[in-house]
Structure formats: structure tokens, C-alpha cells
Amino acid sequence: MAPWVKFLPDMGPMMEHLVGLHEGSSGNPVALQELWGPCPRAQRRIRGILERVKRQLFRVGEDWYFLVGLGVLMGLISFTMNFVVSRVSHAHMWLYREIGDNHLLRYLSWTVYPIALVSFSTGFSQSITPFSGGSGISEMKVILSGVVLEDYLDIKNFGAKVVGLACALASGSTIFLGKVGPFTHICCMIAAYMGKVRVSALGEYENKIKQNELLVAGAAVGAATVFGAPISGVLFSIEVMSSHFAVWDYWRGFFSSVCGAFMFRLLAVFNSEQETITSLFKTRFRVDIPFDLPEIFFFILLGFVCGIVSCAYLFGHRRFALFVRRNWITKKLLATDKPVYSALVALLLASITYPHSLGRFMASRLSMNLYLDSLFDNQSWALLSRNSSPEWPAEVDPNNLWFEWYHPQFTIFGTLAFFLAMKFWMLILATTIPMPAGYFLPVFIYGASIGRIFGEILAVIFPEGIKTDDGVINTIIPGAYALAGAAAFSGAVTHTISTALLAFELTGQFVHVLPVLMAVLAANAVCQNCQPSFYDNGIILKKLPYLPRVLGRKLNSHLVTAELFMNPNITTLAKDSSLDEVVQTVTSTEAAEYPLVESAESQLLVGIIRRDQLLPFLQAEPTIQASRHQWRLHEVLAGGCPMEPVTLQLSPQTSLHQVHNLFELLKMQRILVTSMGRVVGFISWVELKKAIADLANPPTPK
Amino acid sequence: MAPWVKFLPDMGPMMEHLVGLHEGSSGNPVALQELWGPCPRAQRRIRGILERVKRQLFRVGEDWYFLVGLGVLMGLISFTMNFVVSRVSHAHMWLYREIGDNHLLRYLSWTVYPIALVSFSTGFSQSITPFSGGSGISEMKVILSGVVLEDYLDIKNFGAKVVGLACALASGSTIFLGKVGPFTHICCMIAAYMGKVRVSALGEYENKIKQNELLVAGAAVGAATVFGAPISGVLFSIEVMSSHFAVWDYWRGFFSSVCGAFMFRLLAVFNSEQETITSLFKTRFRVDIPFDLPEIFFFILLGFVCGIVSCAYLFGHRRFALFVRRNWITKKLLATDKPVYSALVALLLASITYPHSLGRFMASRLSMNLYLDSLFDNQSWALLSRNSSPEWPAEVDPNNLWFEWYHPQFTIFGTLAFFLAMKFWMLILATTIPMPAGYFLPVFIYGASIGRIFGEILAVIFPEGIKTDDGVINTIIPGAYALAGAAAFSGAVTHTISTALLAFELTGQFVHVLPVLMAVLAANAVCQNCQPSFYDNGIILKKLPYLPRVLGRKLNSHLVTAELFMNPNITTLAKDSSLDEVVQTVTSTEAAEYPLVESAESQLLVGIIRRDQLLPFLQAEPTIQASRHQWRLHEVLAGGCPMEPVTLQLSPQTSLHQVHNLFELLKMQRILVTSMGRVVGFISWVELKKAIADLANPPTPK
Q: What CATH architecture is B60-541?
């Protein structure tokens, strides 16, 4: 009991109760003052309730409001970006329409717009930061696996990425790029910024964990707010960026994503784009009998086709990116005049898609969204065009989007095939433009068109459907094949299967769940065996540090032990060595941290000294400087130089498989190997990567 | 080159090629014989292609055919079980119908059937194995976290569980139990059996990993094949059973689940139950504007309501289970006459649900599936019953299931409320029956009825929908609230959010994705804060070993280091100790393994000796027995006693948070703590659990 209580003997019992309540927090005489306020009892009760509510709110994980904030903010940004982009493209379309029939003017109005946007996007974003090009998912994957990429998540890149991405998107289907990748990067920037803001009173290690948790949530929110698809957004981000993850992170990702997706769609309703919150690309497939059972085989076949095409695409993408980097013209352009390179590529792409030239045969007047809307159409164009041969309308007819795909001579098959052939290399070309842009949506659309042509061919072969016994006619829905194709192709390119779920979330219908899933699995089976994913391509091309996966098939990884591949050349600092020796060691090597051992002879591991923490002590005091050979390291340590404990050590008998697991699970960069307490070596990514590479191609014994 | 080749000089080069091809595999003269077969070139080429295909197939992970087999087999079992169950319940319904109007006979026919089934199920399954009662998910959760529960996955329990579960299901909605839990257990048994079958030439550690991988896939398949819902099956199993998981396992689970779900639904088509593969409980909600925007708030409110009810349910369940265990009557019955206890409970439940008594007010003639079908109805019963007051039909009318819920005096609100009130305690009572049965489906149905009554009330309050500005009337769909209620309540009870996805996969419609997700999150927010999940309840009640979660809020877990909570009383064996001392140590302690140290004085850790491997050496040779005090332990080791390497050691400075992470990620049971090579203690689940408990309730300093 606080000492002053005894001076108020008549209030004793009550005070005791009060003090008991407050003892934990302060125990100061504030409690006394409360007694003089009005209704002390009610006040206390209300305060108690508030306290309890606060405790409850904080129990969920005290950063849940950061998650809400992250979700809502990103929904807001995503919507605003879409809004601006749609206004800009409307202006472009308006200009193109109003400019009259002069072909040169029309051509100019069609091409200058994207050229200007793309080169501005490149120039602006590259002037702020060189990291801003590309999708950013490869880098995020590396960061989430524990590597520190300096400045990559710095908030100062935010503007570059947002403005650059908006310009890239505004150039529309001419350049044919998407939003997912850079937007995920933007989300992660915000999440990292929030992580820095919420630095609490904890230690460095804990803050790191908290920041990483926020980053994982950020990655999920990014994918979720672009499509307004919370479930697949979370799963996609997990599949693309992690090899292991915690259910705890998954829940937090869901929570944040739902907030983001809700905000994103809510704003669309407020903006009168939609009447209520519904799917973005609503389909109207037949629900009763969406497909005949034998069609399952065609869906699986489509999956294999998508898998093969995705291999060709990934191979082409990697090769072309290397070519652009090595060819002396493009190399020079990309080194000095990135905007010029972008402008040239945009000019080429825009000229090809000009609607009065080749663009006529690839429905180039459709925007990215309209492409998807048209391809997911529930009617069969092949059967429709048998009965009618519509004119090419002067403007895109939103109720009959398939008119864009129809050409009297080429028919819809000609245009779809031409679209596939041209977009294949145009898409690869577009990915070399050094501006912030996503590559998921174009791949999704490309897959949808593969599925569409597949479905239309089936619809022509079986005009009355694949009959079942009872004679009921269920015509084939090419739109369903487009859905399966989109999911399968994008799934194969990114090595994920949650694209199937994305397809359902985007369209709001779940009736084709099994066929689409089977197509996605088939496509993944082909592509995962033959090519690295698109994002792994990015890691390979950018030479980012990344740990290869040890697949189940590499069984000998259990037989290789740490002593075979660890690096035995490790520099240690002994407690009993003189400062002269320490200075010599530190200046002759460049390690960021040194294992501290008991004595140079015993090499018994005691802890870890970080270079940046040791240096000030070595340079600090002139008295020490003068007589360095007399001082010992343990005296410096006693003088306040911090030493970090070693939390985990391996033994030389640990298998490669276990080491790999540890590195993946604990996101480690470097670990010490000790044998009976003696430091015998260390393992870092370099050693581990080499050991894994040796597994696949065992070094030939000489 | 093989020596016999030189005798065939003219065939030299060709033979060389051939031998080169086969050298790796055998190098025996089989290659010679091939030359005399027809078309040796074509043969070779075909063989080469086959070899390459085989290699490709095996690349995916050489046990993918096990995954297919697991999926297909479980789909088959699930379908067969459903088929048998539906036949048995049809027979029951037929008997009940045909028995005439004599009330006593009708009552008997209604009650005897479930009593017989339930008591047979209890007796049969308990006679084979005492583990067979309950859902099995709690045990699977413990097993997947790395604990070995002897015999729990033994294939000999398979029959007990399958037959017991089939009987439990056949007793229908009277007993009101489901299938998910025991079926997951059955799947895991099969997976464990397959894992034992596929033991490869690898070491023990590798086989363990492979078996665990199959087990994870088995858990996913179990949930997926019950509902034919592959996506949510995988996610549900992950959320319920793991705290961390690998994307690699998730892909394998998906693959196996899709095979299983496909098989399950395919058989339904072949059996003419469905025309093609579609959802189980197809809904027909309005697609254009499924809900008005303000309804989102009601959905969230419903989520909170479900969360609160789920807390009450979980609390009641735990308390009642303890009561049954302590009360002397039930205690005695459960100890000696389990079938009698089951029969008594079944008699009570069946008497209440007898349709001509209280069952009339709780639609008890509906089967489990029809309950869901009726609750997800897209019409509003409250509005329907205003215009017409239907008679209670003599039999269930499959086209107007809501007639079962309608009562002229009580109206549908009365019956729904009565259903909720009665089923609350009936469900808790049913969970105490010691037979194999799942508790997910009943909870799902219960949640659907909470949602239904909520939706019907809203439909009455806003008969013309919540009007938007433009005057379009969108009536409220109570079925959508039933969907949200089912997902939210079952999600809260199991602490998962993938139940939302399950709701969509079951109904085939995705239009309510955001409101349902928000309801599920709200329900989880309430329940996760107040009560352990249903399966955690099981762990608590059965006193299974389980590691509590360290939530983000327990921040001081970073400040508690291993030396504060490790167990320093560790018995080591020193290399230089005499066999007399070793025998004394081994007989006086009961540890399964002992750390081996260099000498009793230095205590430097060298490796680990397992008790069961050491004992034979101590008991073996009489010469050693006679002169035990002369022999030293290191001589026994040199004589062949195996010693295992220590792969991982902690230091006394490792924080509780890190230790917990390691235990969770690596599924460890025990880890040694060393300081400068010396063994200073160990940490096992016991110490960790105590340390975590102390975090929540810090021990008061004396």
C-alpha cells in the first residue's frame, strides 16, 4: 500500500481498492484526485470498461490497425490510379475519334499518346531510382527470403513507381502491360514505411520480425487490391514469393486484403461504376450443366497446350532479354537513353496495333479490361458468325464486343490466331521497356485468347455439344475455355495454381472449378519441369541472390553433410589476442562480423562481434591507440564493446537438406559450424548454392 | 568396353554405342540379344523415349503417383460410404413411412434405428481400438506438429473407423453429426500406410520426411473429398492442423485433392445422381445485384453474433465434456458400458426429434443435406408465408423444403428459434458419444440457421430491400445470410477463415465473396480472442501434448532467454567413464537418448547415444559383463555401438521466441543447449510450455 494512504484512515478500504487498481501503472496520487470529480464510481467503471476494450483490441496482435490502414490506403491508391488511368485513356479515345478521317492525323493521334506516356514513364521513374523498372516481384521474392536489398523499399521510390505505373497503364492495350507487380512493390514500400514508423521499445531482432510480418501482409494486399480479389490475392502472393509461410501471416494477410479489396470496390460503387460490390468481369455461363463430362479431357488438353506455350514464352523472354542486353545498339540505348529506347519500342508496338492497319486483325481498339470481357463472353462467336456477318463498327460496341474480333475474310479464327502470333513477340518486346509495369494481366489475357480459340474450335467441331445419352443438347461454352486458358497460362508462367481461384473471383462464378483446376495443374506440370518461372527469370537476369529449391527428387541432399561444403576459412577473433592483432585482422578482411573465441588456441566459440560495433572502440581512445600491443581484446569487451550471443550452431554432420531447410525457414544468411565447441567453419548462401548446384551436376572426380 | 565385344569385330562401333547406353544400368550381355530382335534401331529409340518419359515423370517428385492413388482411393471410399449411408437412411425413411399410423410403432421405428446404429458404432469401433472415438483432427494436429502418438495411424484401425463412421452417418440428422474429422483421420491412415510401403533405400531421417509429406497431403485430401471441394479442403486442413507450412506441400495437397474431388464427383455422375460435375448444394442467388451496399453492415453484425454464439458453444462443449467425465453415473457408464451410454443419448435425441412431437418444430424430417439445401434457399420464407400458409405435408416435399420449417402458429421464426435453442445443447450432448463422428457439418448447419433467422428478420424489417437512390427494389436474400452464417459460425468454432471459401465451393456461387469474408473475419476476431478452437478443446480435454502459440502480443518472449527456462539437470554419458558407471546411469534414468560428452570433466558435446541402441551392447557379451568396471564407453563405441551426430545446438542466450520458432518450424521434440561446447542443459516441450505459460501469468516473485 502506498505510504500516504495511512493519512486517510476513514477512506482506507476504498483507497486500498483504488490503489490496487492503479498500482501496476503508476501508484501516484492521481487516484486521490478522482474522488473529488463528479460520480467517481461511474468514472471508474467507464475507465475500467475502456481499459478492457483497449486490452481486447490490442490482444489480436497490437498492429491490427496497421493492417487495416495498409489495406484501406492501398485500396484508395489502387482505385485512384485506375480512375486517373481511365480518364487519360478516355481522353485518348476521344482524341482519336474526334480527329476526323485523315489517316495521318489518326495514326499520329494513335501513336504519339503511348509514345509520350511510355517515354515519360521511363524517364521520370529512372531519374528518381534505377530500381523502378520492371515488375518488382522478383526483388520482393528475394527480400522476403531474407536478403537485404538496400533502398529497394525506400519510401522515396514511391512517387517514381506510382507515377511511372500510372503512365504505363494509361498507354493501354497498345503497350499491353499490367499492374500487379509494381503495385505489390508499392504496397511493400508502404508496409516497410509503416514498419519503420511503428518501431517499438523492443530490440532490433523483434522489430525486424514485426517489419517482416508487415511486409508479408503488404505483398498480399498488393495482389488483392489490384483485382479486388482478396482470397486469390493472398494465395498468389504466398505462392509467388515464399517457400514456407506461417498460418499467422496468412490470417493477417487475409484481414488486410479484405480491407483493401472492400475499399477498392466500395469506391467503385461510390463512383457509380457499379451498383453494388460485385466481381470485375462478371460472366454469365450456364449454371445447370456448365459442361458435359467428356469436356474435362479437353480442359486438361488445353492445360497441356498452355503449359507448352508458356515454356516457349518463358524461353523467348529470357533469351530476348539477354539479347537486348548484349546487342550493341540496344545496350548503348539502354545505358544512356532509356526513354529513347522506350519510345522506339512504343512506336513499333503502336504502329502495329493501329486499328486501320494490322490492329484491325487483333481487336486492338479494345482496352485491357474489354479484352477480358470479350474473351469471357458466354456465346460462341463461331456459331454466332455463321448466322450473321456484322459490320466493323465505327466505335467499339460495348454490347457486342465480339464484333471487334470478327473479320469477314479471316473470320474470328484468323483474328484470334493472328492476335496470338503477334502478341507473343510483342509482349516479350514490351517486357524489355525499363518502366514500372506488371506482366501478369497481359499473360492472363494471352492465356484467355488461347483458351478462346481452343473453345471456338471445339464449338465448331461439336456444334450441338458432346451429346450425353438422354439427348439433351449442351452447347460448348468457349468462354469457359477462355477462363481455363487464362488461369492455366498465367499459372504456368508464374508457377502458381491460385490463378484458378483468381479466375473465379474475377468472374464471380464457381461452376467450372474442377476443369479449370485440372487445366492449371496440367499446365504447371509441364512448365515447372521445363522452365523457371517468370519471376525466377527476373532473378536470373538481374543476378539477384537467391536460394535454389532442393526438390524432393534430389534425394542425395540427405547424404551430403556440412563438413563437405562448409567454408573452413573463417577468421576468428580471440579474447586473448592483442589489439594489434585484432586491428590487423579487421583491416585485412572485410567480413561484417567475426566469431569471438575463448583463445586463439582453443577456438571455443563465445559470441559474435560486429565489425561496425568494434571499429569505434579500436579507433577511439588515443591511450589505447598508443599501446595497442599491450591491450587485449577482452579488456575492450569489458570496456563496453557489445558482443552478440550465438543462438544457433550447426555441427559438421548436419546434412545439406537440413541446412537448406534451416536457411529457408529461418531466413538466415550465414551460420557457424562448430565441433565440440570449436569453430570449424561457416556456411553462407554462397556455399549452399554451390552445394546444391553440385547435387544436380556432381563434380567429376579427377 | 565389355570384354566380349572384341569377339565381334565387325559390329564394333555399333556395340560400343549400345554398351555405352547400357553401361550405367548393367553392362551385361542383354544388349547383344537385342540385336537379333526385329528393328533394333526402332526398339532402341522407343526405349530411349520411354526412359526419357519415365525420367520426366519422376522429376515432379517421385511419389506423385502415390498422391494420385491416395486421391482416387479416398474419393472412392468417400463416395462408397455416402452411397451406403444414403441407402441405409432411405430404408429407415421407408420403414417409418410404411409402418402405418400407429404412434407407438412410428415412434419405435424412428428411435430404434439410430439407437441401434449408434450403439453398434460405439461398440464395434471401441472394441477394435480405443482411439476411434471423436473426430481425430485434434490428434492429427498433434501428430503433424511432430509428436509421435503410437499406433494412432495404424492401418488396423481403418476398419473400425470406416464402419463406425458409416453407422454414425447413417443415423442421420437425428444424431446430427458429420464426416470431415474421422474421414481426415482415415485418409491419414492410408497416407501413413502408403508412406510405410514406399520406404526407399534412404536413411531413417529421409523416410520420415517423405512420410510426413504424404501425411500432410492425406490431411488435405480428407477434407477435400468429403465435400468435393479441393481448394477449401486444402486450405482448411492447413489452417486447422499446421502453424507453418511449405508451398511445396500445398501444391502436393492440391494435386491429390483435385484427383480425390474429381473421383468423388465423377462417381456421382456415373451413379446418375448428377448430370455433370457441379457443386453439391447449388444455390440460385440473384447475380446482378446480389446485395445492397448497406447490407455489408448486417453481414458484419451477423459475423459478430456468430462469434459470440460460437464462444458460448465452445465454452459449453468444454464444460459439459468435463462434467460427463466427472459425474459418477456417466463416468461409470463410459468406463464400462460405452454402447449403453451411446444408446441412452441416442434415445434422448431421437425422442426429441420424433416428428410428431418436438421434432415438428425443428424440421427434423430433413436429412443433413436437405437442411443445408433448405437453409440456402434463395426465397424469403417470411415473405412467402405471408401470402400462403401451406399444410404440413405427409412427406418431405423436395421442391418446397421450407414447408418443413413452417408452422401455422409458431411461424418460421418460432421453428428456427426453437431449432437453434434445442440443437445447441443437443449438439453438445451428441459430441460426447464415444463413436467416430465429425463435428464440422453440424456446426456448419447450425451457423446456416443462425444466418437464416437473421436474414428472415431483415427481410421482414425491409420487405422491399434497403432502397438505393434510384428506386430499384432489391429484396434481401435470407439464403445469403444463411451462407454467411454457416461460414462465420463454423469458421469461428474451428478458428479458420477458409470456411468462407468452402461455402462458395459448396454452392458454386461467388457473388457474396466480400460480405461472407467479412462476416467470417468478424466471427473469428471475437472467438479467437475468447475461446480455444474446437480442436484445441479436444487437445485440452484429451491432455495431448501440444505447443501453445506465442502470439505477437507476448512481446516479452523476446526477452526471456534459454538459460532461464532450460532444464539444467541433464544426464550425460562421458566417453571415458567405465561401463559400470554407464550401466548405473542408464538404469537410474529413463531418457530415450543421452548426450555423449568427451569426458566427465570437460562435458564437451560429441554426439548422441540412443538408449535402445546402447542397451544391447551393455547386455551382450558376457566377457564385458564380467569385467564392466575395466571397460570404457569409448571402447564400446569403437566396437560398433552407433552414435548419432548433433545437428543443431542452442546457446543459453537464445530467446524464447527463437526457441519456439525452431520447435514449430522443425517439429522438434528436444534440443540441447551448449555453452562453449559444454552441455549445460536441454529444452523439451515441457520446459517450453512452462515458459510460455509463465509469460502469460508471470510467477510472482517471493
A: Orthogonal Bundle (1.10)
The yes-or-no answer to whether A64-270 and A297-542 have a common fold is yes
- pLDDT at residue A36, rounded to an integer: 55
Position A20 pLDDT exceeds 50: no
Model's pTM, two decimal places?
A: 0.87
d(CA B594, CA B574): 10
Contact at CB, B61 and A552, closer than 8 angstroms: yes
What ipTM does this complex have? 0.85
Quote the cell numbers at residue A189: 514500400
A297-542 is a CATH 3.40.1080.10 domain? no
Query: Which residues of B are less than 8 Å from A651 in CB distance?
Result: 645-649
| Burial class of residue B156 in the structure, from the number of CB atoms within 10 Å of its CB (0-12 exposed, 13-18 middle, 19+ buried) | exposed
Q: Which of B210, B254, B291 sits opposite A276 (nearest CB)?
A: B291
Q: Give per-residue pLDDT as tens, B380-410.
A: 999 888 888 888 888 888 888 989 999 988 8
pLDDT top residue among B52 and B184: B184
Specify the DSSP class assigned to residue A280: T
Contact at CB, A292 and B276, closer than 8 angstroms: yes
Is A64-270 a CATH 3.40.50.620 domain?
no
Please provide the average confidence, as pLDDT, over all residues in chain B: 84
In CATH, the architecture of B555-696 is Roll (3.10)
pLDDT of B361 strictly over 80: yes
Higher pLDDT, B697 or B513: B513
Which residue, among A629, A655, A60, has the nearest Cα to B553 in the 3D structure? A60
Chain A residues lying within 8 Å of B676, measured CB to CB: 598, 604-606, 677
Which range has highest mean pLDDT (A437-446, B127-136, B285-294)?
Answer: A437-446
Residue in chain A lying closest to B656 (CA)? A647
Residues of A in contact with B500 (CB under 8 A): 231
- A243 to chain B, minimum CA–CA distance in Å? 5
Per-domain residue ranges of chain A: 3-59, 64-270, 297-542, 555-696
Closest-CA residue of A relative to B498 is A231
Give the residue on B whose Cα is nearest the Cα of A522.
Answer: B255
Select from B211, B245, B247 the residue whose CB has the most chain A CBs within 10 Å, as the one to mutate to test that interface.
Answer: B247
Taking CA–CA distances from A274, the nearest residue in chain B reads: B289
Rg of chain A over CA atoms, in angstroms? Answer: 31
**Cβ A575 vs Cβ A606: under 8 Å:** yes
| Residues with Cβ within 8 Å of residue B572, at least 6 apart in sequence | B594, B595, B596, B597, B600, B603, B679
